[in-house]
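Feature request, filed as a ticket because there's no other form

It would be nice if the structure record came with a short human-readable summary line next to the C-alpha cells. Right now we just get the raw output. Example of a typical job, pasted below so the devs can see what we mean:
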Amino acid sequence: MHLLRLLRPYQWLKNGFVFVGLIFGRAHGDSALVQGVFLAAAGFCLMSSCVYIFNDVLDRNADRSHPSKRTRPLASGAVTLRTALVLAFACGIAGLALGATASANVLATLIAYLGLNLAYSAGLKDIAILDVFIIAAGFMLRILAGTWGVGITPSYWLLLCGLLLTIFLGFAKRRAELMAVACASANSDYQRPVLYSYTPALLDSMIAVSACGAVVAFGLYTISPDTIALHGTDKLIYTVPLVLYGIFRYIFLLHRRYGEDPTWTLLTDSHLLVTAAAWLGVTLWLIG
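Raw output as currently delivered:
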C-alpha cells in the first residue's frame, strides 16, 4: 500500500492529455495509432511516477513539516530511501521502454519530460511564473506524445487551448497553496520558496487571463473551418458551456479552500465529474 501511494496512481489522470490527439484527430479507427497512443500513455504513467518519487526523495525533510505531506511514505518513514530509489529507477526504465516501443518520437518526449522535471526540481521551481510554465510544458509534452509522437497531426488551436488550460491549473494550484499557508501560518516553514513571490491578487489576475484564453481558444477551435471539415459537424460549439461551467466550478472550489491538487479536486467533486463526463460524452457523440 505504501509503495502504491508513492507511485500516486490517481495522478495518472493527468496523462489523459495523451489521448487528445486520438479523440480530436479522428484516429480511433487506426489500430496502429491507437496502440501507439496507449503505449505512450502507459509510458507517461510510469515516468510521471518516477518523477513523483524523485521529488518526494528531494522534499522528504521539508514534507515532514507540512500538515498533510508529512504522511507521505518517505516523509513518514514508511518506505526507506533505498526502496524508493529502486522503485523510481524501475519506473523510469519501464516508461522509456514503453515509449521506445511506441516510437522514437514518443521516447524523445519522455526523455524531454524527465529532463524538464529534473531541471524543475533542481531549482527552476523557485522562479515565479516560470515554475508554472514548466508544469504546463509537461502537459504539452503529453499532448505531443499522443499526436506528433505517433503520427497524428496536432491542431494548433488545441495545442493553444491545452497550454492555456494547464497554465490556468498551475496558477490555481499556487493560489490554493498560498491559502493553505495562510490557514496554517504557525507552520510557515513548509512553504514553497516561490510562494513568497506571489500574492492572491496577482494570481487571480493570471488565473482570469489564462482561463479566458483557454475558453476562447477552445471556442475558436470548434468553429474553425478545418475542425468542421475534419469532424463533419459545426455543433462542437455547443460543448463550450460545459467547459465554462467546469472552469467556473473549479474557481469556486478554489476560493472555498479546495483545489490545491487539481486531480484530486476533479476526482472528488461531483459537479466536476458530471461536467467532465457530459463534455466527453457529447463531444464523442458529435464527432463520432
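Something like this underneath would help us a lot:
Residues 60 and 75 are 5 Å apart (CA to CA).
The radius of gyration is 19 Å.
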